[in-house]
Amino acid sequence: MRIEEDIKLDFRDVLIRPKRSTLSSRSEVDLKRSYKFRHSGFEWSGIPIMAANMDGVGTIDMARTLAKHQIFTCLVKSIDSSELSDFELPGYYFAISTGTNKNDYIKLQQTVRHDTHFICIDVANGYSEHFGDFVQRVREDYPTHTIIAGNVVTADMTQELILRGADIVKVGIGPGSVCTTRVQTGVGYPQLSAIIECADAAHGLGAHIIADGGCTCPGDVAKAFGAGADFVMLGGMLAGHDEGGGEIKDGKVTFYGMSSDTAMEKHHGGVAQYRSSEGRTVTVPYRGSVNATVLDLLGGLRSTCTYVGASTLKQLPKCTTFVRVNRQINDVFLK
Q1: Is a pLDDT exceeding 70 seen at residue 182?
Q2: Which residues contact 146 (CB under 8 A, 6 or more apart)?
Q3: Cα(236)–Cα(251) distance, rounded to whole angstroms?
Q4: 334 Cβ contact partners less than 8 Å away, ≥ 6 residues apart
Q5: Count of alpha carbons within 13 Å of 161, Cβ hemisphere only?
Q6: Going by C-beta distance under 8 Å and a sequence separation of 6 or more, which residues neighbour residue 283?
Q7: Would you name the residues annotated as active-site residues?
Q8: pLDDT value at position 113?
Q9: Cis preceding linkage at 291, omega within 30
Q10: What is the rounded distance in angstroms from the CA atom of residue 148 to the CA atom of residue 245?
Q11: Radius of gyration of the chain (CA)
C-alpha cells in the first residue's frame, strides 16, 4: 500500500482566472478545431464535443441533429447494421461503439460501414491486459480507422493504449452523474487532474484525449478544454431531449448509467451473479430539442474564451490559469 500526497483536483475545486482580452464580442471566437490522428492519419474538423455512447444520448437521431452543429456522437453499442442502413448519417461525426468480447467483435465487423471513420472501444476498466490486446487487434484489422479507446485516468495507461493503436484515449473513471463506480469500488481519480496528466502524456506522443464525465454545466466543459482535453464527452448534460428517444412521463425522462441495473436488464438480461451494478437510474426534466442546449453550451464556451483572451478554442489551454477555490458558486437560490 502507498499514498500519493499530491493534491488532485476536480472541476468544482477551481475557477478560471480572467485576463485582459482584445476580443470585443463572443461572436469573434472560433470553436472549431482541426486534428490529424496519429495512427489513422485521418484529418477531422469540427466542434470537439461528443455525445456519450449511452442510452438516451448516443442515438442516431442525436447524431443527425448534433452533426448539423459539427458536433460528434459516439453511438450506443446496441445499434446494429440494419439500423444504420435506414438512416443517412455523416460518417465524419459519429463512431461505432463496441465492447471487447468475441460477439462484440463479430458485431463490429458487421456494423462498420464504408463511410465509417471512427471506432469507439469502450469498457469501464481500461487497465486490463485483455483490453490492450483488443485495441491492438482492431488497429491491425482497421489500419485506416480512427480508434477511440478507454476508459483510463493515468498517464502511463494513456501512453500504453496509444502505443497499442489508439488515436484518442477516453479519460474518466467514476465522475459521471449516473456512475457509481467510486461508491461500489472505491476506485477513481479526480477528473480535472486526470485530464491534465493524461493530456500531457497523449500530446507527447502526438495523440489525443477525450474528457469523459463529470461536466455538469458549460463552465465545466470550459475547464476541461482549458486543462488540455482535445474533446469533451457529455452524457447527463445531453439527457432528456427529444433526440434521445426516451419515454416522457409527468414531464420527466428516465436516464441511467450503462452499468446500472436498468441497462444490464435491457441489454444483458440482468446483473450477472459475479458483479454488481455500478450505475444509477434517475429521472431528468424533459428538455425538448437538443438544439437549445447546444446553443447555450457553445455560448458559454465563447464567453469563457472572451474572459481569457482566447480567440479560438485551440488557444484556450494557453490562456487558462486555474485558481483553487473552496467555493465556486453562490447557491443560495439553488437550495
Answers
A1: yes
A2: 37, 39, 40, 42, 44, 117, 118, 119, 167, 168
A3: 17
A4: none
A5: 35
A6: 252, 253, 254, 255
A7: 179
A8: 76
A9: no
A10: 25
A11: 19
Whole-model pTM? 0.96
| Nearest in space to 134 (alpha carbons), one of 171, 160, 95, 172 | 160
Rounded to an integer, the average pLDDT of 151-170 is: 98
Cell representation of residue 290: 437538443
Q: Using one digit for the tens of pLDDT, what is the confidence trace for 16-29?
A: 999 999 999 999 99
Nearest to residue 126, comparing CAs of 88, 173, 80? Answer: 173
Confidence of residue 274 (pLDDT cuts 50, 70, 90): confident
CA distance 115 to 181: 35
Q: How many CA atoms lie within 13 A of 182 on its CB side?
A: 14
Reported as a single tens digit per residue, the pLDDT across 19-59 is 999 999 999 999 999 999 999 999 999 999 999 999 999 99
The strand pairing partners of 30, in sequence order, are 312
The DSSP call for residue 156 is H
Q: What is the pLDDT of residues 96-141, one digit of tens each?
A: 999 999 999 999 999 987 778 999 999 999 999 999 999 999 999 9
DSSP track, 53-76: SSTTTS-HHHHHHHHTTT-EEE--
DSSP 182: H
Choice between 16 and 79, residue whose per-residue pLDDT is larger: 16
Residue 231 parent element (H or E)? strand 231-234
Residue type present at position 48: P
Cα–Cα distance between 241 and 261 in angstroms, integer?
22
Q: How far apart are CA 201 and CA 315, in angstroms?
A: 19
Q: How far apart are CA 75 and CA 71, in angstroms?
A: 13
| Residue 306 grid cell | 472572451
Unique residue bearing C-alpha cell 459539427? 70
Q: Helix (H) and strand (E) counts for the chain?
A: 11, 15
State the Cα–Cα distance between residues 311 and 294, nearest whole angstrom. 20
